[in-house]
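Please fill in the sequence for the structure shown.

STRUCTURE ENCODING:
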């Protein structure tokens, strides 16, 4: 039959037997099963390649670059990336976790397609995204809590403050109260959180990053008469909204969805 002929031609081409008799029927040999699995993988890969090529032809980016300030809620960021990946699994994502002016600098340099920052960018229009609440905190056993009274900013001057360094390369800036006699400057927000958790100083930290420690009582808000809580309004800024591709717009939508309820 035509099928038998095709099978024999395939076996001759591959140099292995793919079918063997089993009573009145035939079945795949071990080699045949292996080749079938591999063929299915190759077909799936070819379909994926065709899909990617079609999307690229329609203007889909092969890669998008994000600059997201480290104060952006981590859970929301993970959800946004997961949602984006489900829709665009073949688009690579370059994520730069920036501090203060670092993200804006990437935007000015044209190195980021999408920036999320609490700072404004001259010449760019931002879209409000989420407000992040900062709380002045220290470990429950820190000396500041042992004073057992209301504090003012002068009380803080004698103790070590932990701050996060601006990631900008050219025009770095300072933000917030920075008058402590001792100050440790670190490069990443998570390092600051870890140091405060170890009782090595106090800091203003995003509430979303220390929620569990606050609930367990490991960290406690400093009883400041004023200034213990501050807020930062974060915005999302396109490098060029009109020229942005479908993947960049999809990431923007995913970020907006992820902060609902934060």
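FILLED IN BY: designer on duty
SEQUENCE:
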């Amino acid at each position: 039959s035509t099928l038998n002929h095709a099978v024999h031609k395939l076996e001759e081409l591959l140099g292995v037997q793919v079918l063997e008799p089993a009573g009145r029927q035939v079945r795949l040999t071990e080699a045949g099963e292996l080749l079938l699995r591999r063929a299915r993988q190759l077909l799936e890969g070819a379909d994926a390649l065709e899909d990617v090529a079609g999307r690229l032809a329609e203007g889909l980016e092969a890669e998008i670059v994000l600059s997201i300030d480290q104060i952006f809620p981590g859970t929301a960021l993970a959800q946004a990336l997961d949602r984006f990946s489900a829709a665009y699994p073949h688009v690579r994502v370059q994520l730069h976790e920036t501090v203060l002016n670092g993200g804006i600098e990437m935007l000015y340099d044209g190195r980021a397609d999408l920036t999320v920052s609490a700072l404004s960018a001259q010449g760019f229009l931002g879209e409000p995204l989420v407000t992040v609440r900062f709380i002045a905190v220290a470990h429950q056993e820190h000396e500041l809590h042992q004073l057992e009274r209301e504090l003012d900013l002068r009380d803080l001057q004698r103790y070590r403050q932990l701050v996060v360094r601006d990631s900008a390369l050219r025009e770095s800036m300072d933000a917030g109260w920075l008058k402590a006699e001792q100050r440790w400057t670190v490069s990443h927000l998570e390092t600051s959180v870890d140091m405060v958790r170890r009782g090595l100083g106090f800091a203003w930290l995003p509430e979303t990053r220390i929620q569990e420690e606050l609930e367990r009582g490991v960290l406690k808000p400093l009883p400041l008469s004023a200034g213990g809580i501050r807020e930062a309004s974060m915005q999302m800024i396109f490098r060029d909204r009109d020229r942005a591709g479908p993947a960049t717009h999809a990431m923007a939508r995913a970020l907006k969805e992820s902060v609902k309820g934060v």
